[in-house]
Write a structure and sequence with these properties.
- The structure is a single chain.
- The chain is of the alpha+beta class.
- The protein folds into two domains: 38 residues, no CATH class; 100 residues, Arc Repressor Mutant, subunit A (Orthogonal Bundle), CATH 1.10.10.
- It has four helices and six strands, in the order ββαβαβαββα.
- A two-stranded antiparallel sheet has the order 1-2.
- The longest helix is centred in the last third of the chain and has 19 residues.
- The termini are far apart.
Length: 149
């Protein structure tokens, strides 16, 4: 199987993969799929539960969602999006949920370490979902307490 993706400079790059998708490690540029993309696992039978996320609401309150545009440093790495974007700060997420961070793909070498030595980060947004679930539950409990007064 070959997967094609548009690279950041308008060229077409591809990565070969076997039927188990074992060879795909890095894709550059936009990736668009018309179907589901499934990664990792969620099955309880494959997990040792270490406990619920504590103080989730306080952790969420410490994060900021904000609008931004790419700066000159991002552009020096080949990012060329001039449109307004939204996101969170990896450094803020790192303080409350470091499990949701990885080295940014553009800065990761084959060994999984930083190419630049600067350790640029990216947020795995799907890993924020459990934090948000627990924060909503904490907030619902506070509302219920107030309603019962």
């Amino acid at each position: 199987m070959t997967i094609y993706t548009k690279a950041t400079h308008g060229t077409l790059s591809h990565t070969e993969a076997d039927s188990n998708m074992n060879q795909i490690q890095n894709l550059t540029g936009d990736f668009t799929a018309t179907g589901d993309i499934t990664a990792y696992y969620s099955d309880d039978r494959l997990k040792i539960n270490l406990g619920e996320i504590t103080d989730a609401l306080e952790k969420v309150k410490s994060l900021r969602g904000f609008n931004y545009i790419e700066n000159s440093l991002a552009k020096s790495f080949g990012f060329e999006e001039d449109a307004n974007q939204i996101g969170v700060s990896a450094q803020e997420v790192e303080k409350v949920l470091p499990e949701a961070l990885r080295l940014a793909p553009f800065d990761r070498n084959a060994e999984g370490t930083s190419k630049s030595g600067e350790n640029y980060l990216t947020v795995q947004y799907e890993k924020l979902t459990p934090l948000l679930i627990e924060a909503i539950k904490e907030l619902a409990n506070k509302v219920e307490e107030l309603e019962n007064k």
